[in-house]
Amino acid sequence: MNILVTGGAGYIGSHAVLRLVEAGHFVHVVDNLDRGNRGAIDTLRAIGGDRVGFTEMDVRDNVGLLDTMRRERIDSVMHFAALAYVGESVAEPARYYDNNVVGSLSVIEAALEARVGRFIFSSTCASYGEPHEDDLPINETCPQNPVNPYGRSKLVTEWMLRDAAAAAGDRGQPFAFAALRYFNVAGADPETRVGEDHRPESHLIPICLEVALGKRDALTIHGTDYPTPDGTCIRDYVHVSDLVEAHLATIEALKPGDERAYNVGIGRGYSVRECLEACRRVTGHPIPEKEGPRRAGDPPSLTADPGRIEKDLGFKARHTDLDEIIETAWRWYQAHPDGYPRD
């Protein structure tokens, strides 16, 4: 396949590009490098050679996207490009709707105009909001009632894809899409070729590892009074390599007219304190902690029921031990303590 990957210089996107190249596909990355890393692109091009192309472009540039899709003869899209900080989305909602909704509409329109047949969308468990206890673990029929602008921006994009696919079908245009609703993504390429390098970093496991590296003084636990066994938020952590395997399995399975949605997680949740203890075990560092207030928009518990994707595609996460997941991230941070090289 000739696959356009938006956001391919970011954490998840770069791992997807790496796996697609290893599977023999040709990949063209579009990324504006606002939060992506040129160093990731350099690494991927060194590995993939002429099977990895790159255009520095904002996905809201619809004309540029269409030209790129036509020039590169794109037949499939994996759309990762998005702003993805829950707290930031609460503080700057307009920015999130502009980037995530307007940007996604631009990608969808260009894909349809270029006669792209397959589209994988990077959605999120945040689209479920705060599910009732009876809906845990979450399956794909759980009502989607997001509680923050980030989750809403992803849900709106799912709606846009559904409507665009219906209209394409009505005019006889082959188009298939899948929305993969990720739970919390963690870990890194086991060979440390690509990894997680956010600036600023807001994710729990990388922050713990930055404390272990001496880059931070302590981990702040945001909220210790949630209705969970230890008072801290519970999340389902899926290894990034498993996540990209889910993308590969899905894009290879899509047939014209398909409209699919899959949860991608391991089916087991870990609290903030459990993650902290796992990071301490893996690194051998005490990782000091301090307690802080809740963050706006954080639901108490989000865990996946990944049964649908296993039933439909035979996909099941291989990395289900939290220490093992963290260990791959720790190897990346030890090999690249300052992340990717900056110009």
Q: Describe it for me?
A:
Helix 7 packs parallel to helix 9. With 343 residues, this protein is of the alpha/beta class. It has a domain of 227 residues: NAD(P)-binding Rossmann-like Domain (Rossmann fold, 3-Layer(aba) Sandwich), CATH 3.40.50.720. It is built from eleven helices and 13 strands. A seven-stranded parallel beta sheet has the order 3-2-1-4-5-6-10, sandwiched between helices. The two termini are 32 Å apart.
Features:
Rossmann fold, 343 residues, 7-stranded parallel beta sheet, globular, alpha/beta
Structure summary:
The protein has 343 residues and is of the alpha/beta class.
Helix and strand topology:
Layout: E1 2-6, H1 11-22, E2 26-31, H2 38-48, E3 52-56, H3 62-71, E4 76-79, H4 86-91, H5 93-113, E5 118-124, H6 149-170, E6 176-182, E7 184-186, H7 204-212, E8 219-222, E9 234-239, H8 240-253, E10 259-264, E11 269-271, H9 272-283, E12 289-292, E13 301-302, H10 307-313, H11 322-335
Parallel strand pairs: 1-2, 1-4, 2-3, 4-5, 5-6, 6-10, 7-9, 8-12, 9-13
Antiparallel strand pairs: 9-11
Mean pLDDT score, rounded? 96
Structural class: alpha/beta
Q: What summary fits the major beta sheet?
A: 7 strands, parallel
Q: Assembly state here?
A: single chain
CATH-scheme architecture of the domain at 2-186 and 239-266 and 305-318: 3-Layer(aba) Sandwich
CATH-defined topology of the domain at 2-186 and 239-266 and 305-318: Rossmann fold
User: Total number of helical segments?
Assistant: 11
Terminal Cα span = 32 Å
Q: What is the element string, with H for helices and E for strands?
A: EHEHEHEHHEHEEHEEHEEHEEHH
Silhouette? globular
Please give the order of strands in the largest beta sheet: 3-2-1-4-5-6-10
What is the assigned CATH homologous superfamily of the domain at 2-186 and 239-266 and 305-318?
Answer: NAD(P)-binding Rossmann-like Domain
The residue ranges in which pLDDT falls below 50 over 5 or more consecutive positions are none
The percent range for helix content is: 40-55%
**How much of the residues is beta strand, in percent?**
15-25%
CATH class (first level) name of the domain at 2-186 and 239-266 and 305-318: Alpha Beta
Total strands: 13
